């Protein structure tokens, strides 16, 4: 059983809240998209409104990445989004951070610095060891409770995610609560269950396909994006040199597993029947039977969308992860547009993945029952895996 904010006595309490506001960062180093900040408004506003002193913990990017920045612009945007006053401090667990926490007024918010500026945060630990790290030992003494609302990072057993509930009472925030409700009972969703696996994280998606086909969770898997190209490749189709290069780049060492899936589940595993390429600057659709071509396959074609729509029209649940094509280029958005629209014919639709959710916003698509804030974490749930953050709260 996991406690929620309904179980927390917030008035006057210093509450550490781990959120996931890891966002695309523009060339000027500020936020390019604030959808994850908006997702956490409910939890942060509710705690401030109930008189808590809200201390926000979050990460941005990874060491060495060009999106590895301070949380200053995140704090400024939260200040715009929240009715409560929002301060920022460029410290996380030092004396300076503790002083600022102890000086907070009830009903106000303090955003601490990027947790990943500190080396132990990018390692993974069992909760008891995470509780002994400098971050948790330094900050826990000035907190009265801990809330984890960071569903999108729940698959990371990092100190700010799994360490605090060892020392403090732990609660699920409203985002975490909603995500666990929607994704935690995938085995009880309506059947037939159709997984639409696209995008470019081919190694992860082949793992997901294996898990949901071997476990019987999936009645059908519709492949698109680089994932679809990878299955075409292992089925013996010569995609052309460029597409084959991308497949080998992205599939890692999972192509043999893709081959096994194709031979064991050929009836449930659907592959594109046509693709779209760029020729003289235009979108040109090419039947798989007419491959190879030298141009890279950038989208699924309209015949594939139609074939997949036929499967989706009888679906009980449709689970989407990964765009069908390079939707960022208007010439190659038609596959994602058509496939995602067709998926809304299902009784219940779940979307997972940062870029997948971005594609839905970009294409102005509606009608999905649950759009997850997570990618890897959502996939872990959709394949029935447990999440370290959830186990730590339990
Ligand atoms: N055929 C394709 N060739 C190259 N890239 C593709 C293709 N189809 C989709 N993509 C890319 O996949 C990316 C998103 O994939 P992924 O990161 O797996 O999604 P998510 O973040 O939702 O898990 C998009 O940026 C899109 O441009
Ligand atoms: O964006 C995230 O993951 P996602 O791309 O799987 O949605 C989370 O913030 C976790 O970030 P990480 O993958 O750097 O640990």
From TrEMBL:
Gene Ontology biological process terms, A to Z: glycolytic process
Subcellular localization, as worded in the UniProt entry: Cytoplasm
Protein name: Phosphoglycerate kinase
Pathway(s) it belongs to: Carbohydrate degradation; glycolysis; pyruvate from D-glyceraldehyde 3-phosphate: step 2/5
Keyword vocabulary terms for this entry: ATP-binding, Cytoplasm, Glycolysis, Kinase, Nucleotide-binding, Transferase
Catalytic activity: (2R)-3-phosphoglycerate + ATP = (2R)-3-phospho-glyceroyl phosphate + ADP
InterPro entries with a match to the protein in the record: Phosphoglycerate_kinase, Phosphoglycerate_kinase_N, Phosphoglycerate_kinase_sf
Binding site for (2R)-3-phosphoglycerate: 36, 116, 156
GO cellular component terms, semicolon-separated: cytoplasm
Subunit composition and interactions: Monomer.
Family indicated by similarity: Belongs to the phosphoglycerate kinase family.
Gene Ontology molecular function, alphabetical: ATP binding; phosphoglycerate kinase activity
Organism annotation: Halomarina halobia
């Amino acid at each position: 059983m996991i406690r929620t904010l309904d179980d927390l006595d917030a008035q006057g309490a210093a509450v550490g809240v781990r959120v996931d506001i890891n966002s695309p960062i523009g060339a000027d180093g500020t936020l390019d998209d604030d959808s994850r900040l908006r997702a956490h408004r409910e939890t942060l506003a509710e705690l401030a409104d109930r008189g808590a002193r809200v201390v926000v913990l979050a990460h941005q990017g990874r060491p060495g990445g060009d999106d590895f920045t301070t949380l200053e612009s995140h704090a400024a945007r939260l200040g715009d989004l929240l009715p409560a006053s929002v301060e920022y401090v460029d410290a996380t667990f030092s004396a300076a951070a503790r002083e600022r926490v102890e000086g907070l007024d009830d009903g106000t918010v303090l955003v601490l610095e990027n947790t990943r500026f500190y080396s132990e945060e990018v390692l993974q630990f069992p909760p008891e060891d995470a509780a002994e790290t400098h971050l948790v030992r330094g900050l826990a003494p000035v907190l009265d409770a801990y809330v984890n609302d960071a569903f999108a990072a729940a698959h990371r057993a990092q100190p700010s995610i799994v360490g605090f509930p060892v020392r403090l009472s732990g609660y699920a925030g409203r985002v975490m609560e909603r995500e666990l409700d929607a994704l935690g009972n995938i085995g009880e969703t309506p059947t037939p269950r159709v997984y639409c696996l696209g995008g470019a994280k081919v190694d992860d998606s082949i793992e997901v396909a294996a898990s949901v086909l071997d476990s019987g969770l999936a009645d059908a898997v519709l492949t698109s994006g680089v994932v679809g190209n990878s299955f075409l490749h292992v089925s013996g189709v010569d995609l052309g040199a460029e597409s084959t290069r991308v497949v080998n780049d992205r599939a890692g060492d999972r192509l043999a597993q893709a081959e096994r899936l194709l031979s064991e589940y050929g009836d449930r595993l659907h592959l594109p029947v046509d693709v779209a390429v760029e020729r003289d600057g235009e979108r040109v659709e090419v039947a798989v039977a007419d491959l190879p071509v030298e141009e890279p396959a950038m989208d699924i074609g309209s015949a594939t969308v139609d074939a997949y729509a036929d499967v989706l029209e009888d679906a009980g649940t449709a689970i989407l992860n990964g765009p069908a094509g390079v939707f960022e280029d208007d010439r190659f958005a038609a596959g994602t547009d058509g496939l995602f629209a067709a998926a809304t014919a299902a009784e219940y639709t779940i979307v997972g993945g940062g870029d997948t959710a971005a594609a839905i916003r970009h294409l102005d698509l509606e009608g999905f029952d649950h759009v997850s804030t997570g990618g890897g974490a959502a996939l872990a749930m959709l394949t029935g895996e447990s999440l370290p953050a959830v186990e730590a709260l339990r």
